Amino acid sequence: MTNVVKVAESDVADPSLAGEGQRLIDWAAREMPVLRIIRERFARERPLEGLRLGACLHVTSETANLAITLKAGGAHVSLCASNPLSTQDAVAAALSRQHGIPTFAVKGEDSARYYAHIQSVLDARPQVTMDDGADLVAELHKGRRELLEDVIAGTEETTTGVVRLRAMARDGALRFPIIAVNEALTKHLFDNRYGTGQSTIDGLIRATNVLLAGKTFVVCGYGWCGRGLASRATGLGAHVIVTEVDPTRALEAVMDGYRVMPLAEAAPNADIVITVTGDINVIDRGAIERFKDGAIIANSGHFNDEINLAAIDDLSVEVTAPRTFVQSHRLRDGRTIHVLAEGRLLNLAAAEGHPAAVMDMSFANQALCAEHIAKHHKDLALAVHDVPQDIDREVARLKLQAMGVSIDTLTDEQQKYLASWESGTT
Fold it and tell me: Which of 69, 208, 267, 399 could cross-link 39 (Cys pair, CB 3.0–4.6 Å)?
């Protein structure tokens, strides 16, 4: 895998920000010891030598450390943003100017430029895709099918992307295997729960500076992201209500101590509503018509589809921007509804995304899965695969090692007991 394809150098907002971006990258690296260990080994062993890797990820300081690790392993990396509002322009400049990684990302880019950047990554004819939401894979399958013969496999970072890719696999549309990094225990148990929980609250407070204590805070969806968000909102004194469509998750939320009800029932009392479901129109017209005056609504799922923005626009007679990342919609009946970050990812648009310490594990999974693909792609069936258990366990082991935490190991007797069936009640 040594064929290098010439690509456009980069499209970033301001190359002169590279020095500032490098400082941000270095700061994040302090909290990413697992990725550092992997990068040091990659630099020695070069397991990705010559591999063309196209990545569509949030261009942040944490992602930069992943891209640098992949390059250290020998990969030819091209990177674009997976969300128009999540890019850190200084980081994009540093990746391009100081690390020689073609980077196509500008914070606030419009839809046309966003998809043009995806095309720039595809122009590098990637052999491995690395996605956050499956936009890169979708564009590859819809408009650049002539490139599919080059692709050996890919990885996917998010719940939303995994849902899309599994739908493609069910329809027989998926043309190369994908490893669902999101499904790794060391990803969703930590990134989704602790990362989304903390960073969403961070984005909410930065955008609004509201006091959460005493507020009625509605969390739409009780997956791992919703669990984390509900926990952190409770910790800040909010009265949390959970809405769900899955009876098992709803039951879990009840037994975790939250009130559970349909959104239509929660809406009239909600001060803050945040979606974390990965589905479309979770906050729909019916709920919008029931929100009280001054309600704040936002989304921390992947796409801005979770809020029916068209319905809000249709009901609005005036839209103002009292704060950065706040759009206040005055409705025909006189109520005002505040929409944060244009309905896009609140934690990345209004804040800085997940803390580096949790992205350390997620991106360690990405790096090790890229290595797994390079070595074993011929053995991967055309499907969406879970992360191999040995990779998941290795990431956990390295994280504990970096934290200075030791654990017990099974004795030979204990291993034999767990592998047998003969022993019983005596």
Answer: 69
